[in-house]
Amino acid sequence: CGRATHAEQVLENAEDNLRLLDHLVCGVETVAENLEHVHLVQGGKYYGVHVGPFPTPAREEDSRAPIPNFNYDQQDYLDQRSKNRKWSWSASRPNTLLHYSPQISRNIVSTLGAYAAICRELGASLDFPGNPGAFESITQMTTIELLAKGIAWMVTEKSCLNQAFNFTNTDVFRWKHLWPRIAECFDMVPGSVRPLKLEEVMSERDEVWKSIAKKFGLKTSSLDQVANWGFADATLERYWDEILSHNKCRSLGFHEWDETETRFVHRLKQYQNSAILPT
Question: How large is the average pLDDT for residues 149-170?
Fold first, then answer.
């Protein structure tokens, strides 16, 4: 992704992202004479999940939203370029990724874990900081393991060539149901819905985090290595449903699934057991 400023809640630059892909493909082609396949990871943003309400369940063949979207440009680029080449392409469309990645702060699990730890340290209940509508809406996530299985399936299954497929855990959840389970991981009481701009409020909590890190012997005392508040704000402000259809991949034989709430809690505990988040 070519978001040079890495700012959240903005439309990514389509021209820069297309140029990145073009440079990558051109470079690979010069050294890989036997290139067989190029895979593109897209996401729910293909359907405008980051912009506003969209038709659900979103299907791969749905009409494109009338907004600039680098996902469209990149897919069109691969589709056109591959016509005169020996290689094929495919694209996966996960929704919010659920993963354990200690070196990546743009992660909803570690970010909300850091938020919970700071609230606890300040003696506060665990309020939901997002939009009230987001607390009630239906949404989906994709574990990194399921996405990896999906990509492996796509690039080796001939019936998937030159196509895009949605990949989420196949279940749905509401933040209002997951929130008490997050609170339980920190022995906290779930609070109420209290909209906040975390990027603004948490910018003043570095010293609190340093105190937490010292008390629990955490591996990093740098809050920005654990949490990306702008990303959390962008994720928790979506008052609309985020549902992607899985009919296409199922019809061709991919039936993997995962359970989002349980996996989210498991990821939180991984961060705690690794001394990245406090217990």
Answer: 98
